[in-house]
Amino acid sequence: MKPMSHFVQGNKDAMPLLLGLLPFAVLTGVSAIQAGMTPWVAQMSSLLLMSGASQIAAATLMTAGAAPFVVIATHIAINFRYAIYSAGLSQLKLCFTPMTKLAAAQVLIDQTYALTFLRCQTQPLSAKEKTLYYFGTALPMWLVWQVGTALGIIAGPLIPTNWHLEFAITLCFISLLIPMLKNGPIVVAATVAGVVSAFSYGWPYNLGFLFSMFVGVLAGGLYRKVRWSQRSEELS
């Protein structure tokens, strides 16, 4: 395959996820306006942050009159998963210059990381090919997110409440999870995180989500370590 074909393949792989991402972005725009943000500030939040879960959480807290430090702390807590994603990308050994690394960080979201991780695990790619694929998945998602946010800002008041756009958030993450359930550590991590999140669902400021994520990652890592130890003993 030619190098740019990996960028195109990233575009193609991202397309099915855009159907779930668009209503998620629209809901983010609606939530921002309902929280009292001006259209300009609401759109800039998507341009600078591009994190629907934390944007909606922040909008909800602002609507409830929460203190600014609570809003900021919630943003940091929810978005801490991106530090884990960044560590994961470093293990995949993509090829970034200082400028492309900044661009990659700006467009990093759950869907982009999941697709890139799966591609790199199943295909023997060079560092350049991995990087092109990463940006191939990221670009259409970034564009759809900005357009969806703008639609939510403009058309939010006209959207009937019985459409329940918030369900798109669940669909987004389900569509990411199912293709990844192909090896033991990920299955263990997802199962443990799901069980823990069921018990920590009512925690304030979405802290239950963060806690369940940490416990799930820890369980998956522990399972992988045990499996590696067992295989080493079998080979010795």
What's the topology here?
Blueprint: H1 3-34, H2 39-48, H3 52-63, H4 68-79, H5 81-92, H6 98-106, H7 110-122, H8 127-155, H9 167-180, H10 184-199, H11 207-235
Defining traits:
single chain; 236 residues; mainly alpha; 80% helix; 0% strand; globular
The run of helices and strands is HHHHHHHHHHH
Query: Stretches where pLDDT falls below 50 for ≥5 residues?
Result: none
Number of helices: 11
* C-alpha geometry: globular
Please give the domain count.
2
- Quaternary state of this entry equals single chain
* Fraction in helix: over 70%
Q: Measure the end-to-end span.
A: 39 Å
Return the structural class: mainly alpha
Please state roughly what percent of the residues sit in beta strands, choosing from under 5%, 5-15%, 15-25%, 25-35%, 35-45% or over 45%. under 5%
Mean of residue pLDDT values: 80
Radius of gyration: 19 Å
Largest sheet: none
Structure summary, number of beta strands? 0
Subcellular location: Cell membrane
Family: Belongs to the AzlC family.
Pfam families: AzlC (PF03591)
GO cellular component, one term: plasma membrane
Description:
Keywords: Cell membrane, Membrane, Transmembrane, Transmembrane helix, Transport. It is a multi-pass membrane protein. Belongs to the AzlC family. It is found in: Cell membrane. The protein has helices at residues 3-34, 39-48, 52-63, 68-79, 81-92, 98-106, 110-122, 127-155, 167-180, 184-199, 207-235. It is mainly α. It folds into two domains: 3-180, no CATH class; 182-236. The relative contact order is 0.15.
